[in-house]
Amino acid sequence: MWLAACLALTVVSAAAIIRFSGQDSGQSQSLSHGLTAWVLGLLPVENTAENLELLNYFLRKLAHFGLYFLLGIGLTGMVRRQNRLRTALVVLVLCGLFAAGDEFHQGFSQGRTPSGWDVLLDTCGACAGWAALECLMFLREKKE
Questions:
Q1: pLDDT digit string (tens) for 52-65?
Q2: What would the pLDDT profile of 91-123 be if each residue is shown by its tens digit?
Q3: Among 88, 97, 127, 143, which residue is least crowded by beta carbons within 10 Å?
């Protein structure tokens, strides 16, 4: 059951990443600006173009980090064994390569450009997912 849940999380997060990267710039901006305008309406700040763009940038980067965080959790659950360092290296390498390939793929979407910074952010998100699951598993094992 655990392995199936981790596999599902890995597949769903990877599919979402690929889908979002395949959007052209118009589709991507439309989606993110709609979400940003909604979030901006919830915040006690003035609804200006500058605030919209700043929040939009932040939410887009948060989406990168968050999707790879989920991917990192899923992969960690799939490959986790007793050796935490080996698990970390596998997750880091696989997610780093996936992020690089994803940015390369994004370069073929109209109006989109790949970014090395996004690869780094994505890899950090995956590492945070690894760390979060490792911490939870450590606490669970300690409790038993």
A1: 889 989 999 999 99
A2: 999 999 999 999 999 988 888 888 999 999 999
A3: 143
State both tokens at 39: 């979030």
Q: How many CA atoms lie within 13 A of 112 on its CB side?
A: 22
Report yes or no: 71 and 98 within 8 Å, Cβ to Cβ: yes
For residue 117, the one-letter residue type is: W
- For the entire predicted model, the pTM comes to 0.90
CA dist 138 and 134 (Å) reads 6
CA distances from 101 to 1, 48, 105, 114 (A): 30, 35, 6, 10
Q: Kindly state the tokens that stand for 56.
A: 């939009």
